[in-house]
Amino acid sequence: STRIVLASRPHGAPVEENFRLETAQLPPVGRGQVLLRIIYLSLDPYMRGRMSTAESYAEPMEIDDVMVGGTVAQVLASRYPGVDAGDYVLSYSGWQTHAVEDGARVRKLDARRAPLSTALGVLGMPGFTAYAGLLAIGRPVAGETVVVAAASGPVGSVVGQIAKLQGARAIGIAGGPDKCDYVRGRLGFDEAVDHRSPEFAEQLAYVVPDGIDVYFENVGGPVTDTVMPLLNTYARVPVCGLVSQYNLPGRPDGPDRLPAFMNYVLTKSLSVRGFIQSEFVDDWYPGFLMDMSDWVQSKRVRYREDIVDGVENAPAAFMGLLEGRNFGKLVVRVAEE
Ligand code: NDP
């Protein structure tokens, strides 16, 4: 197997030297196991957290571990009943070309129902994060205003489109005019605002004349500072991610904004709720798969993928993800289908 391992821990933004490409002999396929040929690898912001030892909801990787990640694979050999050679599966095999996994830990995919790569995006973990976070915590109702940043990405794009399906107004925040055009034109958000524009604060205030009822938090930092004063009383804030902070070596620079934030929580009676998508799986996953398959098929939910070829190019693509160089769900094509 050709694979990429964690060579050293990053200080701030990850650099080439934090990753190492190597080849390794796979173990024999034991009873109950399957041999996989990886086709697609998902690159996601949470992987930055796994590279560090800072406290998080997930255990850090160890040095020399294969970089973690969701994968779509084809079964080459199986010693697990119910999974056969030739089947396509969703697995968590990480940044490598081949893997041996426990059969119980892979889930079969139907390549005729949806493109295989969507199991890592709109029909997978990021799509589910948007669905559960928005419907379980944000709970938008018709006529309300929903704001989400990283709006062209796999989570944000789905948040806004589901908000629209609920009859709410959807406002996207994205980096640069191309992403904003896509969010407005293709995804059908009511408005999109560029957080890199010098007029960002004025533009955001202008497109939410009735204030913000749901702020789906994906990024943190200056974007959140701009959103806070626009929140309405009883606004809901699903706290999903803080990607603008992931590369910071220590505490964010500048004055401590926590007191100001707590003042908003108090004076506007805000409900702020953090969540990890996995906590909603039992109650929400079956409904998600049914609704989202239907919405994607009927084109009521659209998605965009940013596909990079070759596992050796995963580190550079991942570094770009944390700076907004991806446009759509970032997926590495490790091999042809
Ligand atoms: P994306 O593919 O959208 O990639 C991240 C995007 O964040 C970039 O493309 C960029 O978009 C934006 N971004 C990066 N840096 C900044 C910055 N400094 N300020 C503002 N925006 C920035 O990611 P996902 O859709 O996969 O994930 C979105 C968020 O959801 C992340 O925070 C992630 O950690 C979180 N998440 C949480 C889960 C949970 O269970 N709680 C599960 C899955 C994801 P742009 O160019 O538009 O600024």
UniProtKB/TrEMBL annotation:
Pfam family, one: ADH_N_2
Sequence ranges assigned to domain Enoyl reductase (ER) in this UniProt record: 17-332
SMART domains documented for this protein: PKS_ER
Keywords: Oxidoreductase
InterPro entries: ADH-like_C, ADH_N_2, ER, GroES-like_sf, MDR_fam, NAD(P)-bd_dom_sf
Presence of the UniProt keyword Oxidoreductase in the record: yes
Cross-referenced CDD domains: PGDH (cd05288)
Gene Ontology terms, MF aspect: oxidoreductase activity, acting on the CH-CH group of donors, NAD or NADP as acceptor
Membrane-spanning intervals of the chain: none
Name recorded for this polypeptide: NADP-dependent oxidoreductase
Organism: Tomitella fengzijianii
